[in-house]
Write a structure and sequence with these properties.
The protein is an alpha/beta fold. The protein has a single domain, classed as TIM Barrel (Alpha-Beta Barrel), CATH 3.20.20. Helices cover 40% and strands 18% of the residues. It has a 6-stranded parallel β-sheet with strand order 7-8-9-10-11-12. Strands 2-3-4-5 form a 4-stranded antiparallel β-sheet. Helix 10 links the parallel strand 8 and strand 9. Helix 7 packs across helix 9, helix 10 runs parallel beside helix 11 and helix 13 packs parallel to helix 14. The longest helix is centred in the middle third of the chain and has 24 residues. The termini are close together. The mean pLDDT is 96.
């Protein structure tokens, strides 16, 4: 089987000759490239060339946000509007004057509306760039107080989503049989999740739900057409798998909040995708124990970036049992095990050998590193995993 065939079989729950192995290497590569610490012999390789050298499937789930069609990239990140080149859509502002001011690594964006000016700020720090990050840190959210809700709602009501497949199709051609290109929509699953994660500081969000429930509800209504547009564009793309939402945590997106807001959105979109022969992936990289029953009810197909102990409270066996063979796991290897400062070679090897002995031919597992391969990962540990996976065939 090719890596593409293995991944798609794992998504469907069909038999595989061995588990696919698709680590997310972009953070490791960018950080090491920036600091000049790539291993000897790899310094001049591009990331695709390095992936081929390692002999793993190409990870193309969470996109590379440094590759954006506009300059500066990620200008609207503080609004939660993130449109990498590979996304199957573009987003335009109609009837909103947009002013950008770049001051070194800091970007200020102002959106002029009849209800006032929305101002956001974001910055790339040396620390984040050294770690390989592609998304800037938001230092000023668009909503600072109750006076900003109407203006932000106006901005969203004047967003226009247009399907655009050029970047997606180029990436699909580049990867070929070495993996699948998942169609990205949003890192949030629904308007209420989007408001929580991107438009307010999280503490202010929970206060606002009590203090200004009508404003929150009105803003969610204004954001919904944006979600409708990006989800429709992804559904209409050639992608077999579509990515919606992520970064759940059973303390922040706690069960009652998840059940009221996120679950219905995932269930509705998943049903729509299933009706046209496609699959839904969501990014479950947090503490998930109390959310597992709701995940099953939501009915999505792939849980991306699944991270077991020691980085979360759940063992890998508990995660597999919780999904009951109904959800494909993409992940399974805690990133700390790949770092000599946090795990001995003996502990690393025992975890990998045990996981492969038990799950090396599992039908609903795509082996990956959760959340990503970090800059301090050791190259020889990645090679060891690749060698052991190859022996399963």
């Amino acid at each position: 089987m090719t890596d593409r065939e293995r991944i798609l079989a794992a998504v469907r729950g069909d038999p595989v000759d061995r588990i696919p192995w698709a680590p997310r290497l972009e953070f490791w590569y960018r950080g090491r490239k920036r600091k000049g610490t790539l291993p000897a012999g790899l310094e001049e390789l591009t990331l695709p060339e390095l992936t081929d050298r390692l002999g793993v499937a190409h990870y193309a789930v969470v996109p590379d946000f440094t590759d954006c069609p506009e300059d500066p990239p990620m200008a609207d990140r503080a609004l939660g509007v993130m449109v990498p080149t590979v996304a199957p859509f573009r987003v335009y502002f109609d009837g909103v004057e947009r002013r950008l001011k770049q001051d070194g690594p800091r970007l200020t964006v102002e959106y002029e509306t009849p209800f006032g000016t929305v101002r956001t700020e974001s910055v790339y720090t040396d620390e984040s760039l050294d770690a390989g990050a592609s998304v800037p840190w938001v230092t000023r959210n668009p909503i600072q107080g109750p006076e900003d809700f109407d203006a932000v709602a106006y901005v969203y009501e004047h967003l226009r989503v247009t399907p655009c497949l050029d970047g997606y199709l180029r990436e699909r051609e580049r990867i070929g049989d070495r993996g699948i290109v998942v169609a990205f929509t949003s890192g949030t699953a629904c308007p209420m999740h989007h408001i929580m994660k991107d438009l307010l500081e999280v503490e202010k969000f929970f206060y606002a739900r009590v203090d200004y429930p009508d404003k929150i509800a009105r803003l969610a209504e204004a954001v919904q057409p944006f979600f409708d547009g990006i989800q429709a564009a992804a559904a209409a793309s050639p992608a077999e798998v579509v990515h919606l939402g992520g970064n759940y945590d059973d303390a922040i997106t706690y069960p009652a909040f998840f059940a009221q807001n996120i679950l219905p959105a995932l269930k509705k979109y998943g049903d729509e995708l299933h009706a046209i022969g496609k699959y839904l992936l969501t990014h479950t990289d947090g503490e998930n124990r109390r959310l597992f029953p709701l995940y099953l009810e939501a009915g999505f197909d792939v849980a991306d970036s699944v991270c077991p102990a020691p980085m979360t409270r759940c063992t890998f066996e508990e995660i597999v049992e919780a999904f009951q063979g109904k959800v494909t796991i993409w992940g399974g290897i805690p990133s700390v095990l790949l770092c000599s400062a946090s795990a001995s070679w003996e502990d690393f090897r025992a975890f990998i050998d045990g996981l492969l002995a038990r799950y090396g031919h599992a039908s609903r597992l795509i082996l990956g590193v959760s959340d990503m391969v970090t800059v301090d990962c050791e190259w020889d540990r990645l090679q060891y995993i690749t060698e052991q996976v190859a022996r399963l065939a």
